[in-house]
Amino acid sequence: MPISRHPLMQNTSRNDPARRIPVDQFAASRLSESFAALGPHASRLAPLMYTKLFARYPALRRLFPSDMASQERKLLDSLLMVVDHMREPARVREYLVGLGRRHLSYGAAPEHYPIVCRLLVEAIAETSTSNALPWDAALESEWTQALQIVSDIMISAGQGPATHH
User: Fold this and answer.
1) How many whole angstroms separate alpha carbon 54 and alpha carbon 116?
2) What is the pLDDT along the chain (165 residues), one digit of tens a residue?
3) DSSP state of 8
């Protein structure tokens, strides 16, 4: 199996040896295809994830507005941005840095991110109805890895330069 780089992983410098490692186009394609396959069911994704979140972690409800419609749209729009621009990691990183900084001001803490990632993967799996690209362990792993990278970028941005010594 050849070595490849996750499509969301950005190489930070021209001298970075990882620049020569090709992007895993297969993973990028499967993530894009699986998100597109949600199709008309995509609107169920965010409400399902937040229902799971608030049922399992009721203390986190206070971090969100009472009317979740706007929040649900923002989550879906953010996922769409990441998936649509996955092959442009610098653009995605810039977007996620801003998002991570805003989330800090909303009260998001590093320990919240793995919870949301896990529940989001569950919600994607439950919303996925495509026979062309059935949900399987490989697709679950690809989504988990992608959302972990997204989380890492957002957490790092939320910590800001003051915490990096």
Assistant:
1) 11
2) 555 556 666 655 555 555 554 456 777 888 899 998 887 888 999 999 999 999 999 999 999 999 999 999 999 999 999 999 888 888 889 999 999 999 988 899 999 999 999 999 999 999 987 666 788 898 998 899 899 989 999 999 877 654 333
3) T
Instruction: Provide the 8-state DSSP code for 165.
Output: -
Instruction: Please say whether the beta carbons of 146 and 6 come within 8 A.
Output: yes
Q: Which residues contact residue 140 at a Cβ distance below 8 angstroms, ignoring those fewer than 6 apart?
A: 121, 125
- What is the DSSP secondary-structure string of 81-111? HHHHTTT-HHHHHHHHHHHHHHHHHTT--TT
How many Å separate Cα 123 from the centre of its chain? 12
Strand partners, 5: 23
CA 37 to CA 160: how far, in whole Å?
A: 36
What's the residue count for the chain? 165
Name the 3-class secondary structure at 6.
coil
Rounded Cα distance between 46 and 53, Å, is: 10
The residues facing 69 across adjacent strands are none
